[in-house]
Amino acid sequence: MSMDTTWLRLADEPALATPALVLFPERIEENLRRMIARAGDPARLRPHVKTHKLPALVALQARLGITRCKCATIAEAEMAAGAGAVEVTLAAQPVGPNAARLVELARAFPAVRFSTVVDDFSALAGLAAAVAGARVPLEVLVDLDVGMARTGIVPGPAAVELYAAIAAAPGLRPGGLHAYDGHHRQRSLEERVAAAAPAVARVEALRTELLARGLAVPRVVWGGTPTFPVHARRPDVELSPGTCVLWDAGYGAGLPDLDFLPAAVLLTRVISRPGVGRLCLDLGHKAVASEMPHPRVIFPELPDARAVTHSEEHLVVETARAGDFPVGAVLHGIPWHICPTVALHDRVLVARGGHVAESWPVVARARRLNF
Q1: Are residues 160 and 290 in the same domain?
Q2: Are residues 60 and 151 in the same domain?
Q3: How many whole angstroms separate alpha carbon 275 and alpha carbon 120?
Q4: Based on the domain organization, do 179 and 115 belong to the same domain?
Q5: CA-CA distance, 151 to 144, in Å (whole number)?
Q6: Could you tell me the residue range of the domain that residue 352 belongs to?
Q7: At what angle do helices 97-108 and 121-131 cross, to 10 degrees?
Q8: Which percentage of the chain shows pLDDT scores above 70?
Q9: What total number of domains does the chain contain?
């Protein structure tokens, strides 16, 4: 990653403990403005808060007119509701106790419009049982499998019947369709458009059939970050990117058509120099997402750095510039995958004007807040 590094350097780095995750709100706000420009209207955006899990960023989104959001957990939904979101979608089918937890959350925030997704008749029955007698409005979208084969029901007759069952369930309202196509990560935007097209046609056919049956389809929520520009071309759908709020090195390298700014930086220190050409950093698995092969973090100051070993507390890299960085030197890393990296930190530092101005607890990192 070739980039200007002046913005990520902080005057107070000598006093900052590492490893630490630093956010840059001015760059975050610029990313949100670029999201709005791409969507054409903030009302079309339902960003996924799993990337940042932070009330301050939900509030920032709301100030810019983005009042809807999507969540992966009930804790995230509670965080978003408390931070000013007007509409909150739990994009994970609530099963077991989570159905009752979601209903209780909706009771606690009557001014917030809650929705969730289902792809299974038994899960729908459990949700209907949880909402029975609660007197809280809850919208339910059918979660569609459009090729990722992770969750969802394939668009077709069974999906029609499931949607009709939502409409018939007391206490529930049909909220539309939800389709996530995160498997489309082709480097070329036009290749992504072409790859997504068959599923788009199937979902549109499903929507047409539902409407023909007299069933309301208030919205179709499409995609994540890679296909954000694909579906932004279609005026009649909502968009739910997440990563572009903070951005990361992985999408930065793989999706050149998206011009978002890295807004989250890992501070790390050289804690040992184990041999010629090697640096050991305090940036282990517990500080940066490690579910993918290397590179797991990109160092703008060391573009040639190559990971040698990675363990719980240590990352050893090889670089021709190792001699320029003594023990105690600070380095800056852009995570390859920001979403699980944020979840590893209980607090983030917030930088303004070249200094750390405050720190924020990563509230929805917890699996449970109150409900």
Answers
A1: no
A2: yes
A3: 56
A4: yes
A5: 7
A6: 6-22+263-365
A7: 40
A8: 99
A9: 2
Considering the domain architecture, whether residues 228 and 268 belong to the same structural domain is answered as no
pLDDT for 3 equals 66
For residue 147, give the CATH number of its domain: 3.20.20.10
Q: What pTM value is reported for the model?
A: 0.97
Based on the fold, state whether residues 241 and 270 are members of the same structural domain.
no
**pLDDT number for residue 135:** 86
Cα end-to-end distance, the chain, whole Å: 42
The pLDDT of 168-188, averaged and rounded, is 97
Looking at the domain assignment, is residue 252 inside a domain?
Answer: no
Choose among 108, 4, 56: nearest CA to 350: 56
Tens-digit pLDDT profile for residues 232-279: 999 999 999 999 999 999 999 999 999 999 999 999 999 999 999 999
* 87 and 137 co-located in one domain: yes
Residue 289 domain-assigned?
A: yes
Task: Assess whether 221 and 267 both reside in one domain.
Answer: no
Residues 81 and 210 in one domain: yes
Residue 1 is predicted with a pLDDT of: 45
CB 364 within 8 A of CB 83: no
In a domain, 146, yes or no: yes
pLDDT the model gives residue 5: 84
3-class SS string, the chain: CCCCCHHHCCCCHHHCCCCEEEECHHHHHHHHHHHHHHHCCHHHECCEHHHCCCHHHHHHHHHCCCCEEEECCHHHHHHHHHHCCCEEEECCCCCCHHHHHHHHHHHHCCCCEEEEEECCHHHHHHHHHHHCCCCCCEEEEEEECCCCCCCCECCCHHHHHHHHHHHHCCCEEEEEEEECCCCCCCCCHHHHHHHHHHHHHHHHHHHHHHHHCCCCCCCEEECCCCCHHHHCCCCCCEECCCHHHCCCHHHHHHCCCCCCCCCEEEEEEEEECCCCCEEEECCCCCCCCCCCCCCCEECCCCCCCEEEEECCCCEEEECCCHHHCCCCCEEEEEECCHHHHHCCCCEEEEEECCEEEEEEECHHHCCCCCC
Contact 327, 272 (CB under 8 A): yes
